Amino acid sequence: MMTTVLENKTMVEAGSPGLAGIIAGDTSICCVDQGKLLYRGYPIEELSEKCVFGEVAYLLLWGALPNKTQLEEFRTMIDGFHGLRPEVIDTLRKIPNDVPMMSVLRTGISMASHFDAVGGQSVEDLRKRGVWLLAVAADIVAARYRLMNGKEPVEPKRGLSHAAQILYGCHGVDPDETAVRILDLTLTLYAEHDFNASTFTNRVICSTLSDMTSSVVGAIGSLKGPLHGGANEEALALIMRFKDASEAATWVQGALARKEKVMGFGHRVYKNGDHRARILEKEMRDLAAKKGREDLVAIYDAIKDPIVNKEKPIYPNVDYPCGLTYYLMDLPPDLYTPLFACSRISGWAAHYIEQNQDNRIYRPLSRYVGEGLRSVPGISDR
Length: 382
Prior knowledge:
The chain has helices at residues 2-14, 44-50, 53-62, 68-81, 86-94, 101-112, 123-148, 162-171, 177-190, 197-207, 212-223, 231-240, 245-257, 275-291, 294-308, 319-328, 336-357; strands at 30-32, 37-39, 42-43. It has 382 residues and is mainly α. The chain has two domains: 30-225 and 335-357, Citrate Synthase, domain 1 (Orthogonal Bundle), CATH 1.10.580; 231-328, CATH 1.10.230.10.
């Protein structure tokens, strides 16, 4: 015990930039480890194979996988929450066209919160509010997408899955089954990931006893950053820079020699590869073959292979295959991170509830490195 106390004291005195290695709290929602990614004990490989996103969202919010009746009740609940207030749509119209979709989503959810469809603060109310936020986020993304393309938002179509509703809201026609299946898979893969930057932001805001929507808006602000949610857009931009695999291979060798960071590679936790990337990459390759875009996969591999096969390998994270997957689904890059948010809200809401149930306000220490004690000179002496 004495060793542990001394080690902890040394860590506090030394500091930990980015809170690396610091345990900030306990959670029963998600386990992120070198050998596994678990949502409430279930491995991501099995969830992605056996469940649709609605089941995963229910698992995160209610703590158990739903039976058929519970899943139908969940679908009925989210159906009832779909449909934006006119005031929210009017706000979306007034936002300048060059504003990124993540900023629009942040503003739209904040505006929608003034018309909270749930009310109350019980655990059941908070679960329902999480479902309401999932519906609102999907509707905002779809409505803004249509407005940006000179079209009016469409009324939600009842009975669709979360993935299908997003695609229907964007395009106004019943989506293709393959697109729904792959989008649903990405929603499952993005739903939850422990105390990452946006989830920690969400929990910090919750710890002040602020409301769930404020916590989600704060999390969206964190997710906007290219080192977090925006990495899928950046990964696609990297792939699209090159006309062919040869050009990409030449560039990546130079980047490695210069020790440049390559977007879409590496992870704060995973050192032996991101479980989610392996799952999604197979779907991406199959989709590219169907679309006749093996040229893009060749560029993808020309970047990936030298990085993975070097003496100290760096593996792709989920954002690397996701950017190209969404591109092959004909989705514009400005939607990529908002789609991440349309999934992760389920995890954020689950963490809000957990934090709320056993709360202690977050108040870490800092290490002062500024000037020593000094007197304030009069203004004429400065």
